[in-house]
Each structure stands twice: as structure tokens, then as C-alpha cells.
Design a protein that fits this description.
- The chain has helices spanning 115-133, 168-184, 188-199, 241-262, 312-315, 324-332, 339-342; strands at 2-6, 11-15, 64-67, 95-101, 138-145, 157-163, 203-206, 210-213, 224-228, 268-273, 292-296, 299-302, 305-306, 318-320.
- By secondary structure, the protein is of the alpha+beta class.
- The strands form three sheets. The chain has a nine-stranded antiparallel sheet with strand order 3-4-6-5-10-11-9-8-7, with helices on both faces.
- A hairpin with a 4-residue loop joins strand 1 (2-6) and strand 2 (11-15).
- The longest helix is centred in the last third of the chain and has 22 residues, at 241-262.
- It is globular.
- It starts with a strand and ends with a helix.
- 34% of the residues are buried.
């Protein structure tokens, strides 16, 4: 056992691979996957269906974006009262929340979508990033996949939250990447990618532009990251046409490996981090940033046994059982073809 340092977040992770030998009395058999229809007239995310607020969805044929009917961030809100008390501080928080459906079909997910269908999703993400980034400091694109991750609707979709402030995760990375850049004169994630290519033991999938790997400092059992192989890309909006296609490819490759691990629709929370936006961001030097995607899946031993972040993890320190290298090897050695296509 040992601890590993996460330079992006500035924290240690306890690695305890011997814990995989402990007995487990929970379920380990494959769950029966629910066969969902392509169209469900009762699902508020399907084309032509009326949502809870009374609005009717268009008969969309690709992606569909709308303002979240139950947003966590609003644009028109009063400013909080000022306070100089260091124990009771508050600040302004304005923003907007959107929902984006990946497909009109309720029975698909990213690993079973075509490269072209995923490319349409990426194009829509970029347009939203450009639009919202003109006004907001941070635009967070994220997908919660699976009921175990709190997803309340199985229709393939993601959310886009834009805020006037830098969220904690983004602010922490911004600080640590800038400190690394100021001290070493180079980009943290670009340096990291070079060394991962040389080492190769944590790489799961790759193509000409991207690496899909289990980070050295991963916390979740099969946590992965997608990073550029070598080119400096500060934001998703900086992607070339070819890089949009290759990002579609690497996302499909990686999520196919996930589904094949336990032959189930693998749950996760994923999202993208890139340099901050907002008014005047073009005049700011964010050379220390590198665009990347993060996947946080909870499953540990089987499709029915997940990792719980409780107790020690909540009160003391993040801890993982199998090593990042073991996780990467398991994922890497899985078939490249989706298990449903093999039957």
C-alpha cells in the first residue's frame, strides 16, 4: 500500500490493493438490463412529448437543447448582502442550466451510437460553449449515466451549467496548473501525456490525437481521463474538424470498454474541463490549461457492486483498492467491439 499525489487537485490518494481480497456478500451476478423502447410517449425527453412545464418537444432528429425546467442556476436573481464577517461569507452566483438530448432514440447510449452521431453531440457542445462562454466564467458540460449515478431519466442526455463564478473543482485545478506552469515553464497535462505515452501501462485506448487512460492518481476504481496526445488545446472550442472526429472515436472506444467490463450499460459521471471563459477571456493568459475529459464510474467488483465514498474517504482521505495499472490492464484487454454486437 502507498499514497499517490494528484497534482491537479493537490491531494493524496491512499492505494490499498490488498483489499480486493476481502470477502463480499453482495450480489455479483449480471443484472438483467431493462429493454427500453426507442420511443416512450411518457418520457419528457422524447420528441413530441409534453414536458412537466407544459412545453412540447419538437420532433427533433439529432440533438435537442432546451433550458432546464428545474435549474440550479438562474440569471435574474438579487445580489446577496455584503458582509465583512470571515465566518459568514457569501457571494454573487448567477447562471443558466440547459439539458441536451444526444439522440431522439431512448434506447441508445454513447458506446452504441455511431461516430457521426457522437460528432453531432460534440458540435452542439462547442456551439453552447461558445455562446455561454461569452457571458459566463465557467461552462460545465457533464453527463450522469445510470440510475446509480442519480440519473432520473434513461433517455441519452447531458446537462450544461454556466456560472458567473469558478466552481471549486475548476478553481483548484486552475491554481495548481498555474503554479506548475509558473515554476516549471511547461504545461502540467502536456508533460503528463508525454510520460504516459513513454510508460504506456495506464493507457486504455488511443488514436492519433487522444489518449484514454487511467490517471496515476485515480480515485474511482475504473476512473479514466481523455487528454490530447501532444497538441496544446485550451478549450473544446479550439478543436479542429479532425480532432472533433477523433474525439468522437476515442469516446466511443472508451465507453465500449466500460460496457464490456461487466457486460452492462456502465454507469458514470463524466464531464469536460478547459480554460475559463467569460467577458474578455481572450485577453487572459491561460497557456497553463489543457482541455481534458473525466470519467468517474462507481462500479468495483461487478455490475451490482459499487465503490462507496464514505467513512474514511469523507472524513480523512480518498482511498482506492485496485491500482490504476491493474484497472487500466483490465479495461485495455477487453474486446473493442461492444458486447451486444458480439452476440
Amino acid at each position: 500500500q502507498h499514497v499517490r499525489w494528484n497534482p491537479l487537485k493537490g491531494e493524496w490518494i491512499l492505494v490499498s490493493p490488498h483489499r480486493m481480497k476481502r470477502p463480499w456478500s453482495g450480489q455479483v451476478e449480471k443484472p438483467t438490463e431493462e429493454d427500453r423502447p426507442e420511443f416512450d410517449p411518457k418520457n419528457p425527453l422524447c420528441p413530441g412529448v409534453t414536458r412537466p412545464n407544459g412545453q412540447v418537444n419538437p420532433q427533433y432528429t439529432s440533438t435537442f437543447i432546451f433550458d432546464n425546467d428545474f435549474p440550479a442556476l438562474l440569471e435574474d436573481v438579487p445580489e446577496p448582502p455584503e458582509s465583512d464577517n470571515p465566518l459568514f461569507r457569501c457571494g454573487s452566483a448567477k447562471g443558466t442550466c440547459k439539458v441536451m438530448c444526444f439522440s431522439p432514440k431512448s434506447n441508445v447510449t454513447v458506446p452504441v451510437m455511431s461516430i457521426q452521431e457522437i460528432r453531432h453531440v460534440i458540435d452542439a457542445w462547442i456551439e453552447e460553449l461558445k455562446l455561454l462562454g461569452q457571458k459566463y466564467k465557467w461552462v460545465q458540460i457533464f453527463e450522469n449515466k445510470g440510475a446509480v449515478m442519480g440519473c432520473s431519466n434513461p433517455h441519452p442526455h447531458c446537462q450544461i451549467w454556466a456560472s458567473s463564478f469558478m466552481p471549486n473543482e475548476a478553481a483548484t485545478k486552475d491554481k495548481n496548473m498555474k503554479e506548475y506552469f509558473d515554476k516549471r515553464g511547461s504545461n502540467l497535462l502536456m508533460d503528463y501525456a508525454k510520460q504516459e505515452i513513454e510508460n504506456a501501462e495506464r493507457i486504455v485506448v488511443q488514436n492519433n490525437d487522444w489518449l484514454g487512460l487511467v490517471p496515476y492518481w485515480a480515485v474511482w476504481p475504473y476512473e479514466t481521463m481523455i487528454i490530447p496526445r501532444s497538441r496544446h488545446i485550451k478549450r473544446m472550442s479550439d478543436l479542429t474538424d479532425g480532432e472533433r472526429d477523433s474525439l468522437s472515436d476515442i469516446m466511443k472506444q472508451l465507453t465500449t470498454k466500460y460496457d464490456n467490463l461487466f457486460e452492462c450499460s456502465f454507469p458514470y459521471s463524466m464531464g469536460f474541463h478547459g480554460a475559463p471563459t467569460g467577458p474578455g477571456f481572450e485577453n487572459e493568459n491561460y497557456d497553463y490549461w489543457q482541455f481534458h475529459a473525466l470519467y468517474y464510474p462507481p462500479l468495483l467488483r461487478s455490475a451490482t457492486v459499487k465503490k462507496f465514498m464514505v467513512g474514511y474517504e469523507m472524513l480523512a482521505n480518498c482511498q482506492r483498492d485496485l491500482t490504476a495499472e491493474q484497472a487500466a490492464e483490465k479495461l485495455r484487454n477487453l474486446p473493442d467491439t461492444h458486447y451486444k454486437a458480439q452476440k
